[in-house]
């Protein structure tokens, strides 16, 4: 891809808050912008591109945020495809910079999901009446929830391949172990497979501890040209390749275990010109344990049906053969509703060697995959491949 | 439509319009249809004005047997939404109709822990309001 290594992530910042009942979403976003620009060694005057999206934002939220921060950018993108949005924004920013539409582009997110008490996973539809899109008319009367839509993927995977709740639980246990090494993580006390299996069923076969947490939070990225990034404060994290797409019920004819990651991942690898064996660590959206398992299969890190075996035996630990989600993920660190931005932030920190006790050794190339929406109904997938070389 | 609902039915109801009214009217008659493109023959569910394969507006309505198999399912134990929080646990499922398309629905008349993937099911028409009937499924008899 002509875009490969032409742009870079030059600054990142993860807001430390996990509960901010007295802050607005925009305040969290602005504090994150300040952090990311400080990290890059740039100022707000250098910024001329902006990407953002959020569950708590209105349809023109990006314009309102420009008002809040007095921005008049040359490039704006408010693509809203769920939690993967910020992974897609990173690619869109790179393309815009490469095309000359802007020079320094922010990708920003903020949310007060926890303090506003959003029922992110289990609030699906209700209250009589319905607006919504045509597809909703045939789903929402039956009470789908976000967790339920993922649970149906887990149920089918277990049926077809003998995947077990123990195997899924191991993903949650590993994420909590990583969170124990992240001082900012919301839940840091270790858990066991037995703890996961003993937690109550939310939507069968998924237990409470198979589900991501709900927190407040935010973050920001600074994207610029590779050339400019080399003159800035931190080591550039080059954008090698990206892909994005969506999956849905496919007019009633979908194979539900094939997810967006199959297509976005293939595109990202092709465009980056790297192979699976080149990936030293991955950040995989972990809305639920099953999300990780089917994403790894669809990205091609193991064959379809082999995900259960792949995620066990400590392979996913920071010191394992295939480290993922080293900051604790959405299962333990933070999940304000759309956590794709945190995937890019942690991957960048790993590639810069800034992760302290949870640092992956010799980390040169990382893959980021965001999932937005619900795997069992409609969802998006966005993949990025990043490198410090 | 909203002001005609009986107060006690608090789950969401569909919005009827040009492209879906024939389908929902058939539901009221306790008949289940999928669409077949009059030009390329592609099958589709839910009802749409145009074929997603060739964008032809020529639509045939294919009457279904109402029989199928559970493709996947989940027993829902938590949903804060009005109408659903009072009916926990309930089973949400994709049923693959004998005609070859999958539809999201509920499995009823079956204990949640007795539902299985591959289980033969048959349609049950639930008249939830005078205007709206939903296609749910129960174990085939």
Which percent range fits the helix content of chain A? 25-40%
Apparent shape of chain A: globular
Task: Indicate the structural class of chain A.
Answer: alpha/beta
Number of domains of chain B: 2
pLDDT < 50 runs, ≥5 residues of chain A: none
Descriptive report:
The complex is a heterodimer of chains A (389) and B (141). Chain A has 389 residues and is an alpha/beta fold. Chain A has a single domain (7-117, 212-387), classed as Peroxisomal Thiolase, Chain A, domain 1, CATH 3.40.47.10. Chain A has helices spanning 25-40, 61-69, 85-98, 146-161, 165-179, 193-198, 226-229, 260-272, 289-299, 307-310, 329-333, 340-351, and strands at 7-14, 49-52, 75-77, 104-111, 201-203, 206-207, 217-225, 237-247, 281-284, 365-373, 379-387. Chain A is globular. Chain A starts with 6 loop residues before the first strand and ends with a strand. Chain B folds into two domains: 17-63, no CATH class; 65-141, OB fold (Dihydrolipoamide Acetyltransferase, E2P). Chain B has one helix at residues 21-28; strands at 33-37, 43-44, 59-63, 67-76, 90-97, 102-107, 120-127, 133-139. A five-stranded antiparallel sheet of chain B has the order 6-5-4-7-8. The mean pLDDT of chain B is 94.
